[in-house]
Description:
The chain is mostly helical. It is built from eight helices and no strands.
Amino acid sequence: MTNSMALRDTRRGALAESRSALMRLVIAAVVLFAAVSSVGYLLTHPLRDTAFERWDGSVNEQLARHRNASLNTATHWLTYTAETLTVVAIGALFFIALRLLLGRWRESMFLAAALAGEVLIFVVTSLLIDRHRPPVPHLDSAPPTSSFPSGHTAAAVTLYVALAVIAVHASRRSWLRTLSVLVAVAVPVGVAAARLYRGMHFPTDVLGGATLAVAWLAITWAVVLRGHDARPLEGGRGEGAPPPTRAA
């Protein structure tokens, strides 16, 4: 009876914690959406057809003048590391793998919340802010969403930085933490450069996408992971694992 009541209380506490976390994430997402949309409004109204926008586009023009076959191919494959199908596949794979390896849901839910929130804020913002693409030849077909913010950049930062945060949070292996951080820096920077080179986004679009992703990751980390610094990935115990038994 006592064990049953304790289990029931534990489940109630976990449910209350989940509801509280969800509410905080929703409120934060609304605030972040408002902030990003405000920047988008400035770019598409007060700053449109100004010297600032001409400078913004001059970066794309410079890159377009220096295109070659090798860079075209390299940036094509870099873009694929942040395509929707790629992000969904990698995210789903790690969602399952983290649950199996760690024996708990927290890191998996952090990854899912980071990716889902980023996509939601990006899509709603891009539908509201109708910014044209840079005035250079485009090497990719333009999606129906606005140029601002850059969805590829936001997705790359969210996915690869989230995985690095999880590795630093949960792994004892220094090589794994170092590798994850290097990937988290190299891939988003490469994707951002590729989107500029291929004429798909202004520099401010890329900066907006990266800022959106970093801000949302910080919020998600604070709500889901902060204060839960167990490291069970190699030889440790996960949250909720039974304590080790002592020899008699």
